[in-house]
Amino acid sequence: MMVESASETIRTTPSNQNGVSSLSSQSDGGGGREGGSNGDTNGEISPVDLLHLQQQQALQAARQFLLQQASGLNSPGSNEVKQSPVQVPVSMAMMSPQMITPQQMQQILSPPQLQALLQQQQALMLQQNPKKVGNHCANSYTICVFQQLGSKQLAFQQQLIQMQQLQQQHILNLQRQGLVPLQPTAAMQSLQQGMYTDTHALMFTVANTDFFLFCLFPDSHEEHAGSHPLYGHGECKWPGCEALCEDMGQFIKHLNNEHALDDRSTAQCRVQMQVVQQLEIQLAKESERLQAMMTHLHMRPSEPKPFNQPVSTYEAYPEGLPHPPTSAATPITPLLHTHSHSHTHGVGPIRRRNSDKYCTPIASELAQNCEFYKNADVRPPFTYASLIRHAILESPDRQLTLNEIYNWFTRKFAYFRRNTATWKNAVRHNLSLHKCFVRVENVKGAVWTVDEVEYQKRRPPKMTGSPTLVKNMISGLGFGSLNASYQAALAESSLSLLNSSPLVTPPSAASLNMLHVGHDDVSSTVEQVNSNGSCSPTLSPQQYSHPVHVKEEPTEVEEDSRPVSLLAGVTHSLPLPSDERDLEEDLPTEELE
DNA sequence: TTCGCCATAAACATTC
DNA sequence: CGAATGTTTATGGCGA
After folding, report:
1. A406 within some domain
2. Is the CB of A469 under 7 A from strand C?
3. How many domains are there within chain A?
4. Which of residues 385-414 of A touch strand B (CB under 7 A)?
5. pTM of the complete model
């Protein structure tokens, strides 16, 4: 669902994350456009003021909720929650309730959400005090609402808090079971559905993402209660009504009598329309924000096509050496884009060698962001040499003609679908210039292969000679700086996020890649670092370089040297493209634990 | 400042 | 012959 649409918005600007600014823009623009129902300030209390008052009360309720949440997290059971596979331990632990300011709450509870609440209450006020509204046009009802805020809002807030408590327990249970949906859009959809049917079941809920969702949950009995969407639980579901009706007939009668077409009903309907509209806007914004977040975190927002699989082939790479993760339980570093080159995205045609220099794992990077580079006109942060080598090694026979290299570039990178003369010239230049690329005459013509020995020679001597230096460098790049549990949680959350698509292999892809693939340009150094620890043995470049000759089939030795993957089993159940035979053949040989 | 790496451009040669 | 392929040189940016 949302995963599919992510790729299309991958280039969109991240949504406005400033809840305050969006507050004013939405409350002003939204209300004003709709015939000025609440957008004027002609001596009355403006909707903005009203909204502020509402927000204060929402903040109060939210603070209380956060207190409850915090106490729950700090309880002995908090560890369990923390270790939940889908728990993202980002914000909850960091956001003590004492730290919550109104400004923060404005971000937690976005303006449309608050405004939806406001409008709900407005509708409630209207319903409970029809005479107050009386013949007022819809534009002026807010003042009446405001006058009634005191007692009604207090009761409303109490109701809210009670539901919070119930919902808190519910959420914790779901978190333990890993059932809380990560996608805010899903919650928002239920929210939107709920708005049509049950506008009173207001609940705070905390998804295990790092932001709160202020949700309206549909009544679970709604669908079965009756045939009318405004009737359920034996009562009228008209906003703010709650009139008891024995049966459908009585309800219909009540509906015709109490909610006939008049100014009041029209105003209420208008309010409801605005609620829906605001929620739709909010849904769009939250979806956009989510995608921006995923894009920022390089969580491979879109994987709808089975075509996305190059990860698998990495298994057969010569550099697919024992390449353990930072810890056995946290093979997910690649999911986070912590490398120094991240800022180069979209910078422009000038790309310097920061990639190679700074240990960019091209394989994992490409694996993570395959779809991104395929669709976004962004220059990949890799050198031509790295890319060429990658393309050649990715091929079944580890040899490509020049034209096939061209095709690989254009297939993998939207960026290389333009300015062909420039980058093709650069490719040819690199092929000729670097000794690591060896031209071999084939039956069909010339093909290019990679001489790993030569390629490794390109590495700066200090990188191979000083493991300590390398280690510091790598840790400085973020490979070892991430909290292990955080990494694991992110991996798991990503898994949950992206598993919604059956054809998708993103988490396993990235993880597998991390496990198996030597980091391009620094594969040797990284592996040496790891060899100092508890992980993989160190192989010299000679050991995993392949002979420079035209091969008809992959060498056995390289495949035998591949590591054991903790996650390799994931791929067993995943569809594999036809050209992934290396992996398919090799998977059975790999053991899980 | 120097040096190495890289991207880019371009001239030129060779092959298809 | 023209395009594709391959080689080489020059230039400039950038970081160490």
Report:
1. yes
2. no
3. 1
4. 385
5. 0.34
